[in-house]
Design goal:
The complex is a heterodimer.
Chain A: E1 4-9, E2 12-17, H1 22-28, E3 52-58, E4 77-79, E5 84-85, E6 96-98, H2 102-118, H3 133-141, E7 160-161, E8 166-168, H4 178-186, E9 192-195, E10 202-205, H5 217-222, E11 228-230, E12 243-248, E13 257-265, E14 270-278, H6 291-295, E15 310-312, E16 318-320, H7 323-336, E17 341-345, H8 351-363, E18 367-370, H9 377-383, E19 398-403, H10 407-410, H11 412-423, E20 427-431, E21 444-446, H12 453-462, H13 466-473, E22 476-481, H14 488-504, E23 514-517, H15 524-529, H16 538-543, E24 547-551, E25 568-573, H17 578-581, E26 585-588, E27 597-600, E28 605-609, H18 622-633, H19 642-652, H20 661-664, H21 679-682, E29 694-695, E30 722-726, H22 734-737, E31 750-753, H23 755-760, E32 768-773, E33 776-784, E34 792-796, E35 807-808, E36 810-813
Parallel strand pairs in A: 1-6, 17-18, 17-24, 19-20, 19-22, 20-21, 22-23, 24-25, 25-26, 30-34, 31-33
Antiparallel strand pairs in A: 1-2, 3-4, 3-5, 3-6, 7-8, 8-11, 9-10, 12-13, 13-14, 15-16, 15-26, 27-28, 28-29, 30-35, 31-34, 32-33, 32-36
Chain B: H1 18-23, H2 28-36, H3 39-49, H4 61-66, E1 75-81, H5 90-97, H6 99-113, E2 115-122, H7 127-142, E3 158-163, H8 173-180, E4 204-208, H9 209-221, H10 223-229, E5 237-244, E6 250-255, H11 260-267, E7 277-281, E8 290-291, H12 294-298, H13 303-309, E9 317-322, H14 327-341, H15 347-364, H16 370-383, H17 390-395, H18 397-405
Parallel strand pairs in B: 1-2, 1-4, 2-3, 5-9
Antiparallel strand pairs in B: 5-6, 7-8, 7-9
Helix pairs in contact in B: 2-6, 2-9, 3-6, 3-10, 6-9, 9-10, 14-15, 14-18, 15-16, 16-18
Classes of the chains: A alpha/beta, B alpha/beta.
Chain lengths: 815, 420
């Protein structure tokens, strides 16, 4: 533990750690010192001067080094006469600090008056109104009248697009530089900078496209005024009109805690999400979210949502039916054809949905399949991240291996936190066939060819190298593995090799050690835990089924199987996907925003989300549909709310016994302090009042783990051009495509080649080509990037070329 | 033998040529330091000479050098040739006329603090001086006076020039360092000070051109010689840049202890049209402005005495104001300058100079109401003591002292005392 310092702030004794800044020490004692430029997550700059306080220090006799004492024996305190910025001065033993005496109060008023000389008086139309640090502070300390003539106020640019997503109002900007520092220090995308000087200082972005960062929305939370606003919230609603519901972002496996601000839309008479805000969880997303999580929320109110059950009529058309009718059709079919049921589910379902679908399927002796090409969910349960782990705690002494993924594209918050750990001194080893952004922070970069991923891990264990030595000797060791360039089979072997690496180097079964899978969806881990598993040969498994229940998966759209004709097909979906379009029965389900439940993140943290919006149309939760079917079929299963299902899970599900509803809802004290009253300190991030979730223990915490046995798979592709699917954050999936403002940033219909291959094939950027994958052919435009390995064609997922794993391909220019 | 210490080119023609400079004993001091003195001994000599920084703050040079953090390496030396204070033009003359003495001073300073790289940061307009210095540095490298393994020792030194891009603030040492690193020229927080956290985060000595130029002769002639040139408080000589309403503006090298009367009336030839002298700005636009009373004119020019009068020697840019000039014009000019040069980092300077520029313009254009004067005074007072760096603090000096000491120029009753 670090050294403790005792000091006095406004007559209150405060004990804090050495190195703490005065402003933070005061905050921990419940004393607010106003700040604008300071933010506890950013490096202090001492620029705005609003936090000036009076600081007295003890004196030491120069000759003896002894404390100089007053007549009464107390240490003599000397005040320099100058005020100092509380955000930059570290505490020292015996300091006496005044944060509210006459001199300090006067200084704060003076600084506030200075800021207001240039700040426009447009609070009534400013989106920040109601949650603006400057507004709050003006109410508290403002002079009430302006000595600076209104007609002499400086006029600068209003509503300037700083990028596609963020709008800048130069007049409102108070030059605190939080946005500039966030982009440099936290996001590592230094795309913002100050330009000009003096009162004309403004914020600019020189990147192309402007403000090119997945993190831009966070700057609007940090902005202490209304200078930066998000384009989709601008002039849409007032802060005080909105409801706030705690939720979990469903776009990736990180499970960022968010708050959904909703409001009754006067135009439609329906509630809608006005904005998505980060909610503090220092174990998961701290106070940040990525732009996908923030801006890709319109899918829940999309006109394309299914709202009624649909059944295929005698003419072969899908027509609306009542729920009663729909359940009757399904249950009659399952009664008459009790054999050959396969239930395929995708990772966006909640634990409660998986549990009920499993109970139903097992009641009918059916088979459970998880729609995922990444294996290893059984291994993460065994040797996953130990309970109590927090990437935020990691630094020197930790080694992190990230293999076969592009972390910022696939699990953005993990990228942010792993990079920060590397900045704090953790050794980062990045292994991937192509360059990814995380490599900038890596100490060791291991480049391998597609198909060599497992060998790379084995080499780390068996061959001598600097990276191998560092990983073995590290106090903490973590491995994150993804599925880049792999199918289910090869990823299974990679996961096993990673598990062995951790077991052999003694990095399992303890806090801040273990295995993390970069799952493709928010609750893939939960699906594994509830008994769903990918099938090694999914097309065959689907072909062999008599009856199919498909929930949250689209095997036809994903190109796994061309059609599912000749079977009874029941699809539970949000949208009429290609699979749903072939179904006999389509049952509309609630979006994550319309139901409550739990997700299990890739760090195996179980987190609650709550209903934020009323149900769309007649939609039901997936678990409710399963329960209705169960009831109709006489299968014994719980009929009730998500909460009741969760209680069942806790009772019966191995590994989940350590949970309780109470524990899930617990909110331990978090640093930095976040609250509506602390707007100026931490920004508009929401305080977490509904639980930070519970990290499940890994099985390794209860005993030794045996090593995995596996054989290296044979390379399943030949030496020709290799098409490899890759994940982009801004994909073309319907959850993202429906975003009102992400449109221009979405991945285009293109495949990406190395310039050498492009030249060899006689192709240039923009040219349209035909790509043949076995018997399938598709068309796309060519993009060229030298980060693509030679011989490889990168195929972004979701943009129209379905590809499950690497496959040989032939390119041909379209005449 | 020259009668100058710094402006020796004035009586030694072609001292800027290496041969002439060496004939005058040039680079003996550097060679002697590198071959026979410990770095610490050099610092001790400079300490003993009583030399104080000539950039404005007057901090004892040897003491600054001894603050270099010995646990953090490498060390750097930076010569501040940003010379941007209105009324200051001494460094330019030194570099143009006596460049080798300046470079030798930088070299000795570098040796004293263990720096193997030194940077000369020149204001952007000095691009010709930078080219000129590059040529001199090249020549010194060829002559074996700079470069690797100097004089057969293990000590090596490279000197580089770097041009600023046109900002007054880059004369502030931490803004200078930021600019030198390729960043926006804005001041850093202090502490930490450059001797512990300077260029690229490494211990760095930043001294003014004139400060360095003193060093070779201090080593050659000894600390006592230098000390005896000035006064007890302020050792040695100072180049004063004299400008304003004087007949012969220019640089004048005078020993400390001379008076403004000598500077302005003997050397500067008196006031234009023999008008009445009214005020002195002892340190350019950053000055607390003095009423040119007999007491002021006859006070010995040294750091302590001028401070006692309520101003500062600063960089020695003496601007003379006569009876034909109203102080409201003076502060309008200086505030326009500060407003234009405020970097914008801290609130009081950014907003305060902007506000003051509105007020001083209005006051100068005739709106001399008591409310306006009092508001200006309030705004200036509110800036004081709250800024991130000295630029903001300096911006109000002229305003406050003008209103205090020349009340009648602002439509107020004179106070009757000497300074107002």
């Amino acid at each position: 533990m670090s050294e403790k310092i005792t000091l006095t702030i406004d007559s209150q004794q405060v004990i804090t750690e050495k190195g703490t800044k005065v402003v933070d020490a005061a905050k921990s004692a419940g004393i607010d010192i106003s700040v604008f430029c300071y933010h506890p997550k950013l490096e202090p700059v001492g620029a705005c001067r609003i936090c000036l306080v009076e600081i007295g220090r003890t004196q030491r006799d120069r000759s003896t080094g002894e404390l100089v004492l007053e007549a009464d024996g107390t240490p003599q305190i000397s005040f320099s006469g100058n005020l100092e910025t509380a955000c930059t001065v570290p505490v020292a033993e015996g300091m006496v600090i005044h944060t509210a005496n006459e001199k300090v109060t006067k200084a704060r008023e003076d600084i506030l008056e200075f800021i207001l000389t240039s700040h426009p008086l447009d609070c009534p139309v400013c989106d920040k109104g109601g949650e603006c640090s400057l507004q709050e502070m003006t109410f508290e300390y403002g002079l009430g009248e302006s000595r600076f003539p209104l007609d002499e106020k400086i006029h600068l640019g209003k509503h300037l697009p700083l990028g596609d997503l963020i709008t800048l109002d130069q007049e409102r900007c108070i030059q605190c530089g939080r946005c500039v520092r966030f982009q440099k220090e936290i996001a590592a995308d230094p795309v913002l900078e100050f330009y000009h000087r003096g009162r004309k200082t403004d914020i600019v972005s020189y990147s192309n496209p402007p403000f090119d960062s997945y993190w831009s929305g966070n700057t609007t939370d940090l902005c202490p005024v209304g200078a930066l606003t998000t384009r989709d919230f601008r002039f849409e609603a007032r802060i005080w009109e909105m409801n706030a519901s705690p939720s979990i972002c469903s776009h990736c496996t990180v499970g960022c805690n968010i708050t959904l601000n909703t409001r009754l839309d006067p135009k439609t008479g329906r509630s809608k999400i006005q904005r998505v805000m980060p909610r503090q969880n220092e174990w998961v997303n701290e106070i940040w979210i990525c732009d996908k999580g923030r801006f890709a929320h319109n899918f829940t109110s999309s006109e394309e949502r299914l709202t009624k059950p649909l059944a295929r009529n005698p003419e072969g058309k899908l027509k609306p039916v009542t729920w009663q009718k729909a359940i009757k059709i399904a249950s009659e079919r399952l009664k008459s054809h009790p054999d050959g049921l396969v239930t395929l589910a995708g990772g966006r379902l909640a634990n409660e949905d998986f549990y009920q679908l499993r109970t139903l399927t097992e009641g009918l002796s059916g088979k459970l399949i998880l729609d995922s090409s990444l294996a290893g969910g059984d291994l993460t349960a065994r040797v996953g991240l130990g309970q109590g782990s927090n990437i935020k705690d990691l630094g020197s002494g930790t080694a992190i291996l990230v293999i076969a993924c592009d972390l910022e594209e696939e699990a953005p918050l993990w990228w942010l936190r792993v990079r920060a750990a590397a900045e704090r001194g953790a050794t980062l080893i990045v292994a991937n066939p192509r360059e990814t952004k995380l490599e900038k922070s890596a100490e060791y970069i291991l480049r391998y060819e597609y198909g060599e991923e497992t060998q790379t891990v084995l080499d780390l264990l068996e061959k001598e190298s600097e990276a191998s030595r560092v990983f073995k000797e590290a106090e903490n060791g973590i491995v994150l593995f993804g599925s880049e360039g792999m199918n289910f089979g090869s990823s299974q072997v990679l996961a096993q090799a990673c598990a062995n690496l951790l077991i052999k180097t003694n990095h399992v079964g303890k806090t801040n050690n273990g295995l993390m899978a970069v799952w493709p969806e928010v609750n893939t881990q939960g699906a594994w835990d509830m008994g769903f598993k990918p099938d090694e040969n999914l097309p065959e498994a689907l072909k062999g089924a008599e009856t199919l229940i498909i929930a949250g998966a689209d095997p036809v759209g994903d190109g796994i199987i061309p059609d599912l004709k000749g079977k009874f097909l029941l699809v539970q979906e949000l949208f009429l996907t290609k699979t749903a379009a072939q179904a006999d029965l389509v049952l509309p389900v609630l979006a994550v925003t319309e139901k409550s439940g739990t997700f299990t993140s890739g760090e195996r943290r179980v987190q609650l989300f709550e209903m934020a919006l009323p149900a769309s149309g007649e939609c039901l939760a997936d678990h409710e549909i399963a329960a209705k079917l169960g009831q109709a079929l006489g299968i014994e299963m719980i009929q009730g709310s998500a909460e009741q299902v969760l209680e069942e899970i806790i009772k019966h599900q191995p590994g989940y016994a350590s949970l309780s509803l109470a524990a899930l809802g617990e909110v331990p004290e978090q640093q930095p302090f976040v609250a509506k009253e602390a707007l100026s300190y931490t920004g508009t991030v929401f305080r977490n009042t509904s639980g930070v979730g519970v990290q499940l223990p890994s099985a390794a915490e209860n005993g030794k783990m045996p090593l995995e046995k596996f054989t290296l798979p044979r390379k399943s592709f030949d030496d020709g051009m290799l098409a490899v699917p890759v994940t982009h954050l801004y994909d073309q999936g319907i959850m993202v495509r429906t975003s009102e403002i992400l449109g221009p940033r979405l991945i285009k219909n293109q495949l990406i080649l190395n310039p050498i291959d492009a030249e060899k094939e006689g192709l240039s950027a923009g040219i349209r080509v035909e790509i043949s994958l076995g018997e399938r052919t598709y068309e796309a435009a060519v993009d060229i990037d030298q980060k693509v390995p030679v011989g490889v064609i990168l195929i972004p997922r979701s943009m129209g070329i379905p590809l499950d794993g690497p496959e040989n391909a032939v390119l041909k220019a379209v005449k | 033998m020259s009668k100058y210490v710094l402006l020796r080119h004035r009586d030694i023609p072609d001292i800027k040529e290496l041969k002439v400079y060496q004939d005058q004993g040039g680079f003996k001091a550097f060679k002697q330091a590198v071959t026979s003195l410990d770095p610490g001994q050099v610092t001790e000599i400079v300490k003993a000479s009583g030399l104080r920084g000539r950039g404005g703050a007057g901090f004892p040079t040897g003491v600054k050098w001894s603050f270099m953090d010995q646990n953090s390496w490498p060390h750097y030396v930076v010569a501040n040739a940003d010379e941007s204070e209105p009324g200051t033009f001494k460094d330019r003359e030194i570099i143009e006329g006596n460049p080798l003495q300046f470079l030798e001073g930088v070299a000795i300073g570098s040796y004293a603090v263990g720096a193997q790289a030194a940077y000369i940061y020149l204001r952007g307009e000095f691009w010709q001086l930078a080219e000129f210095l590059d040529g001199k540095i090249n020549e010194l490298e060829k002559a074996g006076l700079l470069g690797e393994n100097l004089f057969g020792t293990e000590y090596s030194l490279k000197i580089h020039t770097h041009l600023g891009a046109g900002a007054y603030i880059c004369g502030e040492e931490t803004a200078l360092l930021e600019s030198l690193e390729g960043k926006r020229g804005q001041p850093r927080l202090r502490p930490p000070f450059p001797p512990s956290y300077g260029l690229y985060g490494k211990p760095t000595v930043v001294n003014n051109v004139e400060t360095f130029t003193n060093i070779p002769l201090i080593l050659e002639n000894g600390a006592d010689w230098y000390r005896n040139l000035g006064t007890e408080d302020s050792a040695g000589v100072k180049v004063f840049s004299l400008s304003g309403r004087v007949k012969k503006p220019g640089n004048y090298e005078l020993p400390f202890g001379s008076t403004y009367r000598e500077l302005i009336f003997e050397h500067g030839g008196g006031i234009i049209n023999d008008a009445q002298i009214k005020a002195i700005m002892p340190a350019g636009a950053s000055s607390s402005i003095l009423r040119a009373s007999d007491e002021v004119l006859d006070t010995p020019l040294e750091y302590a005495s001028i401070r006692k009068l309520g101003s500062d020697v600063g960089s020695g840019s003496v601007i003379v104001i006569d009876e034909t000039i109203s102080m409201d014009w003076v502060i309008k000019k200086t505030i326009d300058f500060f407003q234009h040069e405020s970097c914008g980092k801290c609130t009081p300077c950014r907003e305060g100079t902007y506000w003051m520029s509105h007020l001083t313009r209005q006051i100068h254009s005739g709106k001399k109401t008591e409310e306006q004067i009092q508001l200006l005074y309030d705004v200036a007072t509110n800036i004081q003591g709250k800024c991130l760096c000295a630029l903001g603090e300096f911006s109000v000096m002229g305003v406050l002292t003008s209103i205090d000491r020349f009340p009648q120029d602002f439509g107020r009753e004179p106070k009757g005392s000497d300074q107002g």
